[in-house]
Amino acid sequence: MADLPSRTLDVLRQLRAAYPRTPFLALGQTIWWDEPMKASLLACLQQAGLGGAMVLGVHDTDYFAKALLGGASTTGFELVPHNDGSTRDLWSAAGEISRLFGAECVPARHDLLRHGVPLRRLAGRAESPGAFVDEVTEAWGWRGLVYTGSRDVLVRDIRLKNVGPALKQLLDYGFDGTLECLPEESRPAARQLAESLLARCREYCQSRPDATLTELYRYGYPILFELMLGHAPANVTVTATSELLEFSPARVGSPRWRLLDAFLRPGTRAAARRAYNTAVAGSEMYTLDQFGLGALPFDAVVPGVGRGTLRVTLRAVHIDARKPVRIRTEKPIESAEELAALLDRHFGPGVVVVGKAVTLVLMLAAEYMFVFNEEGSAYVCRTRRLNHLLREAGIVVPVHPLLRLRYATWDALGAVDTSFSLPDHMASAFGAPVVSAKRFAQGWRLALDGQKALMEKLKRTRKPRKLMTFLEASEGAQWAERLREYDEAARQLMDVSAVAEAVRARLRALHERCRQVRRELDTTQLLMGEHFRSTPLWTDDAIAARNDYGASIDRLIADRNALRADIAKHRRALMDLERGPMPVAARRAMRDIEDQAELARLRLVRGALMVTRGLVHAQHRPAAWWFPMADPSGRWFAATVASMDAYTEGLV
Q1: Which residues pair with 645 in a beta bridge?
Q2: Total domain count for the chain?
Q3: In-domain check, residue 466
Q4: Is 40 a member of any domain?
Q5: Is the pLDDT of residue 627 over 90?
Q6: What's the predicted TM-score (pTM) here?
Q7: Which tens digits make up the pLDDT trace of 249-291?
Q8: Helices and strands of the chain, counted as H and E runs
Q9: DSSP strand E in 141-265: where?
Q10: Taking residues 293-297, what's their average pLDDT?
Q11: Alpha-carbon gap, residue 320 to 334, rounded angstroms
Q12: Separation CA 116–CA 473 (nearest Å)
């Protein structure tokens, strides 16, 4: 293995010197994503001779998935994509997977609109607008498994006899999609590895049907570590949050419960609550008052009850699970020890108390050095803010620094002698459907820059002709033909417009003449009325004058009616001209070509978004099994370890 970067070595040496007995903690909900990549830390520690133990934890006290789906699956589980339409609110962690180069990066509607895509117009012309939006905003190469029976089922409550078939479907999606990206000569070995992983999962599920998904993941964690390292991992313990955070009188004295204690002690609870509310303010997370009276930033997980927010009031402890629990107390609960004793008496063993997103890291960082991949855990900034505010209030919770691992996943491909068949959006970015690993490593950042420039140019290209001219230059001569058809249809409309303009000119003249006649008629009628009122004696001359007025009025009315008829005739002629078969067909042709151009814009913007965001995200958080599947030699993983940047992130 190549020498490690000096910064990474320095960081690891400092951590091992400062905290020689503190184990590293890798905590995640699934083994099928980036968590096993933390085997790279073990490789570094081993190579540098630094020692150190590592705890691999399955976060099984979190919800399996959250999704609002239109219908229920017959099996209770459904494999769904993530989009900005029907699955906008999807959250799946314990059952998610990405094929090689895939990522849960949704090309959101607002991003498409921002780059000039008339999404509403295009969706409105689709056979099913909803299905259209789902398709064009779908994250590429990612699927999530959801349980359709309930939104609040926990990972640890998922039984293998129920989830087994759906889990196979999940793995088939990721493995088969990855095989499609590999060259023909590499697929047999990759398929063999995929079949081996599937077989081990299948054997485990069949031999232990009543086991949970947690147990399967605990079984599979070391297997994936061994695949990455090339040997069985040493100094590794596999656990789950249901064990790490078991809340009992015997364990409540450990440092991980000091934060909970601060929220219960009379002298610190008000300040702790203020600190938490300030830390989460402005985020999508609730402040404590939104959970109810006496709420704590912790959930209780109780066998047979479920998970719910802990609330401690003067004379009761509440667990706001699906079926709320209220335990009356003779006096207020004022410490973690008292709370543990109460829950133990009421429920017996097996109760787990887990911090909400912001507090969980502080709990476990009291005893472990959390290991996060780049972009992992978006709540850490809020956690750091909470700890800062607690310390300002005089509440000191002991914490270790976090360790971040930043991978150069794609750059490391330069060490691999293979090639990849790229999906369409990536083939456009790289300029070829098949690229060597070395070319990918050398060119992926240039591809990102090119796609960013493409989006900016498309954002500025608004007019249809300019868009088609751009598409001709980027996509080929077919757009020259479409532009010719577009211009021909526009010429036909111009010819019709020239004839129509003559009719409009005649109509304008007729309208003006009609207005003149109307004014003359109004004047004559006014004069006739004045003559009638001013004539004291109706002589022959007076009668003759009145008759002349009447004749003039009759003539003007006849002229007006004739003009109105002529106007109606010209209007019909204009309508027939403008709505005739030829102009209707020409307008339809122009509209269809404009739609084709806008669909092409949509495809380009969507692809660029998936490249610029998806590749960066996957670079930082690659699925660990990609490495042995795409490169059985281990060189890709070794190069990734050798180029890994490790750095600490303080919680103070």
Answers
A1: 406
A2: 4
A3: no
A4: yes
A5: yes
A6: 0.87
A7: 999 999 999 999 999 999 999 999 999 999 999 988 999 999 9
A8: 23, 18
A9: 142-147, 236-240
A10: 97
A11: 20
A12: 19
Structure tokens at 454: 């493409």
pLDDT digits (tens, 9 = 90+) for 27-66: 999 999 999 999 999 999 999 999 999 999 999 999 998 7
**pLDDT at site 574:** 84
CB atoms within 10 A of CB 184: 7
Domain co-membership, 39 together with 13: yes
Within-domain flag for 488: yes
Same domain, 345 and 452: no
> Per the structure block, which two tokens stand in for 448?
């990102």
CA 196 – CA 303 distance, rounded (Å): 34
Tell which residue, 103, 113, 116, 114, has the closest CA to residue 133.
113
Long-range contacts of 120-127 (CB under 8 A, 24+ apart): 121/595, 121/598, 122/595, 122/598, 122/599, 122/602, 125/595
Structure tokens at 32: 């099928």
Neighbouring-strand partners of residue 79 = 145
Q: List, in order, residues 6 or more apart from 82 with CB less than 8 Å away.
A: 90, 92, 104, 106, 138, 139, 142, 144
**222 part of a folded domain:** no
Looking at residue 522, its pLDDT comes to 92
Give the span between the Cα atoms of 388 and 480, in whole angstroms: 62
Q: DSSP letters along 226-261, please? A: HHHHSS--SSEEEEEHHHHTB--TTTTTSGGGHHHH
